[in-house]
Write a structure and sequence with these properties.
Elements: H1 2-26, H2 33-62, H3 65-88, H4 94-114, H5 116-133, H6 136-142, H7 150-167, E1 170-171, E2 174-175, E3 178-180, E4 183-185, H8 187-203, H9 209-228, H10 232-250, H11 253-273, H12 275-285, H13 295-307, H14 330-338, H15 340-363, H16 367-391, H17 409-436
Antiparallel strand pairs: 1-2, 3-4
Length: 437
């Protein structure tokens, strides 16, 4: 009986996520604001229904009352978020809020299935980050001097990365975080946001050759420290953000091509200098040639293959056999139990969020905020690409988390803060539109 319920549930969840992802792209066709809000309310209903079905499967499989309590807490959390945004920020983008809630929901479901303790920790951190995030749109709208703190962003960012390089313990071949009072802090997640603000501040008005060189040197210092820490996935995110912002601000393809050439040479150098990098490339080319060391990649591939299009159903697969199934390989866990079609819809939701950020960037008049929006969007999209690409063996594994879905306190906190900044920029764009009218 349990198997029948779970099999039916996986198809219901698939239908719900298909409907949701479809509405992400069709909501803009609605001609009136009333019709748009109706679609957005339907999305919220879909999120709550999907959570109920997913946690019902987990409860029936485990008979653990923690599952019911956890689901209730998530419901309260999401309803409060939706209500407060409507009350405090009526001009905020409800689609961005819904996408954040949907991705968090997928994360909570798969984390609760794999490790309830990790799921609860993720929830607590997400709730705390959301409390902080509620003041960020006000800061973005009111504090005009943020565009003038170029050197503050650069110095603090480099110092934070330097602290990690000096004090962090090596984990998985890279120095990623420092531990304070038993809590791990991955400072690079916060520095990602500061790096975007530095680039936007540096390039908002002055795109002369001299200033581009100075900006490049500072960006290279950020990436260089990450390379020395062998945190190459995060370094790659920084580098791609640098390339996009340099090109968009200067409109000179030569700068971007030069940066791409330099980055390619650096990648080749990293391959020969770091055994950690060389192994990941070799495992990507043929993981079965070194099965014992490439076990994580192989198990991820088996999981994706085992899930097929429709998945095995929650609690009927074996994603726990994948090392770091809740972190780097959460996408493989989702593919195995919820299916490839569900995973594709999740990618479409991520794409919808990215396109919304790009749309905001294109419509903002202020050059500083325009670059900030584009930079944050680039970081988000490229992180999604690196995680899913590495898990599916499309590219070598980089050890990057899937934003809002993977377990990782620093990652989920920085992503929620990033989304709050985007909300502030969206509201700022709406203010600009009101002024023009």
């Amino acid at each position: 009986m349990l198997n029948i319920i779970i099999q039916l549930s996986k198809y219901l969840m698939l239908i719900l996520v298909i409907l949701y992802s479809f509405q992400c792209f069709t909501v803009f066709k609605r001609k009136t604001e009333k019709k748009k809000k109706k679609v957005l309310r339907k999305q919220l209903t879909i999120i709550l229904l999907m959570l109920f079905i997913g946690f019902l499967d987990i409860f029936l499989s485990t008979k653990d009352l923690k599952v019911v309590i956890f689901l209730s807490a998530i419901y309260v959390f999401f309803i409060i978020i939706q209500m407060l945004y409507r009350l405090i920020y009526p001009k905020a983008s409800l689609l961005v809020i819904n996408n954040m809630c949907m991705l968090l929901s997928i994360g909570f479901i798969i984390l609760a299935r794999l490790d309830m303790e990790d799921a609860i920790k993720q929830f607590i951190i997400a709730a705390a980050a959301t409390v902080i995030a509620f003041i960020i749109p006000v800061i973005v709208r009111k504090l005009k001097f943020l565009a003038k703190l170029k050197w503050f962003y650069a110095i603090v960012g480099i110092l934070c990365l330097g602290v990690v390089l000096v004090l962090a313990q090596t984990s998985g071949g890279a120095k990623l975080s420092i531990t304070v009072a038993g809590i791990n802090f991955q400072l690079s997640e916060i520095v990602k946001i500061m790096f975007v603000f530095y680039m936007a501040s540096a390039l908002q008005k002055d795109t002369s050759f001299r200033n581009v060189v100075i900006t490049t040197v500072i960006a290279a210092m950020h990436v260089g420290i990450l390379v020395l820490s062998t945190d190459l996935g995060t370094g790659l995110v920084f580098f791609m953000t640098y390339l996009v912002l340099i090109y968009v601000s200067t409109r000179k393809p030569l700068y971007a091509l030069a940066g791409l050439g330099g980055g390619s040479l650096a990648a080749v150098g990293a391959y020969f200098l770091f055994n950690h990098v060389r192994n990941r490339v070799l495992w990507w080319k043929d993981p079965f040639a070194d099965y014992d060391n490439a076990y994580q990649i192989v198990q991820g591939m088996f999981a994706i293959g085992a899930g097929g299009w429709f998945g095995t159903g929650l609690c009927l697969g074996s994603p726990k056999t994948i090392p770091l199934a809740t972190n780097d390989f959460v996408f493989a866990s989702i593919c195995e139990e919820l299916g490839g079609l569900f995973a594709i819809c999740m990618i479409l939701i991520c794409m919808s969020l990215f396109l919304m950020i790009v749309n905001i960037s294109m419509q903002i008049q202020n050059p500083f905020y325009k670059l900030v929006a584009l930079g944050l969007g680039t970081e988000y999209a490229f992180q999604v690409f690196l995680n899913i690409g590495g898990t599916s063996k499309f590219i070598p594994l980089t050890g990057i988390t899937l934003p809002l879905v993977s377990y990782g306190g620093s990652s989920v906190m920085s992503t929620i803060i990033m989304i709050a900044i985007i909300q502030g920029l969206y509201i700022l764009r709406e203010d600009e539109g009101d002024q023009l009218e």
